[in-house]
Amino acid sequence: MKKVAVVGVIHESGLEVLKNANYHVFEITDFSRDNLKKKLFDVDAIALRTTIIDEDILKECPNIKIISRHGVGYNNVDMNYLNNHKQALAITGTSNAVSVAEHVMTMFLHLAKNINASDSLVRTGQFKKQGSLPNFFELYQKKVLILGFGRIGQAVAQRCLGFDTEVFVYDPFLDKKIISEKNCTKIDFEEGIQIADFITIHMPLNEETKNLINKNCFLKMKREAILVNTARGGIVNENDLHWALKNKKIHAAGTDVFETEPPDDNNPLFQLDNILMSPHNAALTLECRKRMAIELAENIIFYLESDNKLNKGNIVNLQKLD
After folding, report:
1. For a Cys staple, 258 with which of 6, 233, 234, 304, CB 3.0–4.6 Å?
2. Which residues are catalytic?
3. Could you read off the pLDDT of 18-67 as tens digits, one per residue?
4. Taking the complete model, does pTM exceed 0.90, yes or no?
5. Based on the domain organization, do 87 and 108 belong to the same domain?
6. Cis (ω within 30 of 0) for the bond into 172?
7. C-alpha to C-alpha distance for 41 and 64, rounded to whole angstroms
8. Alpha-helical segments (H) within 50-125
9. What b-and-e string marks burial along 209-218, b requiring 16 or more CB atoms within 10 Å of the CB?
């Protein structure tokens, strides 16, 4: 009987899928390194939330054939070790696009229309002072720049087009034709950040994207620009973002991610009223948690059973497994 460890809490739907496959499934809630080494030594697969699984742990677990991540990021897994030992890494690539795209639209609308300030007027008995509010804006006929055009970026584009916006895409890895087929326009990075009214990030964090959005970029953006990051902390330089927001170089920002998570209690962004923040939960709607848990489980089952139903696009290091 194959043995699967669930490291972190997933929705019951995913557990049921694994158990119905007649796997021995057990959950780990103590994430200390010693306990992980002890509990993972003979497992065939790991269903993983956010716990770090590095070489020090993996070398004690020779039977592992696949780690299936609950989400699309995998910074918490030692990819080099998995590649060198022909062990697969899977992500839930088809589950979270809708949830994250809706989160982006929520932040766009919330920030563009000063919802917090309007709500405060009503609550504090200043209903008739609505004329004192700063300018707020429509999405209608605005220019939206999407940085990265995978599933989430495309889902955002679809929703923005419903607001009659012009959607521009920066993605150096995609052909212009693919972008045009989605009724969007391919654009280079420098031009994109200069013309955009709304900017949303959907890229991985790596050497090329770290601090991609920095002070130099903010100086080129419109003062009315709204920036939203639901991808990874570190793509936007937080010190430079604080500077830009404090000095009104851009209108506002929304972020679901931080360079350090959780952020420090004294993070200077907390002192600003033109930023909207959420705790890295853009993909954690109930519907999305169910989808991710099921897809996570199916990645494991289909891979271990060599089932042709396996979504090979979910196997991040597929080419390294040959």
Report:
1. 233
2. 232, 261, 280
3. 999 999 999 999 999 999 999 999 999 999 999 999 999 999 999 999 99
4. no
5. no
6. no
7. 8
8. 55-58, 79-84, 97-112, 115-123
9. bebbbbeebb
